[in-house]
């Protein structure tokens, strides 16, 4: 494959062109990448004396370009029981042979040959030595204070990454605070919007969003997470599944119209971001 045929471009397109109104631009650019890849594969096969049909070349290019994008690190457990879960969200069966899971604190885990993941299925990699798929690591592997995990394909390209606690503090910002709600008396539709400014999945488990003046604290539930370059909102007393479904569930207004400060901390108390107005 030449340098222009790279699965990381799919992630870049998703990040930079995310609205439905831009779908034609996305499709046009993806088609260009697939066509370039198909031409490369077709040419390489002819040189090796194993010519491929145009359809085979095109399908193989689609798979190589997009297969990495359909798998994600979907869960990381770093408490009493340590493990990582990968989920195949796409339409193709994935061959994970020789893919690697990388932690900052241990040698990589390499998936053995003939490791396949069906569409819609998940696979779990444990830390303990007794598991079928395991890092075979003695003692703790995933630090409770923070770590970064990467899933890399057999070409070494990072297809998914996950950060938590201290490793995530530079990646979440308070993007906007709507302190003057429209709902009379309760202002239940006030909200704080958080944004993930990184290409990593960010684990928000146990993180705390607080109002300094209003003295209210919202704690993110276990396994709360924010996708790469995504946003979520924490409402005063309103539920919106499209923005994460988070709410203080406060019967009264939280954010004072004359000024306040919103603070975001990790579960261990590290300051992530503060927003004063």
TrEMBL record:
InterPro entries: Lamin_tail_dom, Lamin_tail_dom_sf
Annotated Pfam families: LTD
Domain (LTD): residue spans on this chain: 67-175
Domain of life: Bacteria
PROSITE patterns referenced in this protein's UniProt entry, alphabetically: LTD (PS51841)
Name of protein: Lamin tail domain-containing protein
Organism in which the protein naturally occurs: Pseudoalteromonas xiamenensis
């Amino acid at each position: 494959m030449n340098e222009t045929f790279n699965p990381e471009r799919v992630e870049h397109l998703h990040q930079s062109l995310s609205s439905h109104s831009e779908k034609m631009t996305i499709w046009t650019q993806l088609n260009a990448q697939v066509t370039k890849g198909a031409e490369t594969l077709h040419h390489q096969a002819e040189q090796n004396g194993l010519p491929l049909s145009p359809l085979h070349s095109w399908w193989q290019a689609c798979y190589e370009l997009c297969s990495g994008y359909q798998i994600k690190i979907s869960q990381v457990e770093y408490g009493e029981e340590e493990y990582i879960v990968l989920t195949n969200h796409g339409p193709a069966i994935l061959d994970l042979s020789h893919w690697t899971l990388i932690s900052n604190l241990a040698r990589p885990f390499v998936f053995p040959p003939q490791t396949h993941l069906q569409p819609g299925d998940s696979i779990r990699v444990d830390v303990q030595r007794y598991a079928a798929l395991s890092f075979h690591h003695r003692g703790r592997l995933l630090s409770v204070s923070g770590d970064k995990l990467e899933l890399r394909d057999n070409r070494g390209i990072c297809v998914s990454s996950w950060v938590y606690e201290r490793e995530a503090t530079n990646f979440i910002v308070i993007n906007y605070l709507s302190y003057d709600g429209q709902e009379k008396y309760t202002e239940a539709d006030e909200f704080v919007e958080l944004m993930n400014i990184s290409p990593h999945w960010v684990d928000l488990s146990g993180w705390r969003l607080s109002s300094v003046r209003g003295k209210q604290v919202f704690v993110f539930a276990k396994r709360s997470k924010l996708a790469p370059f995504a946003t979520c909102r924490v409402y005063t007393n309103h539920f919106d599944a499209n923005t994460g479904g988070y709410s203080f569930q406060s019967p009264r207004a939280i954010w004072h119209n004359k000024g306040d400060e919103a603070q975001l901390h990790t579960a261990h108390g590290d300051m992530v971001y503060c927003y004063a107005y």
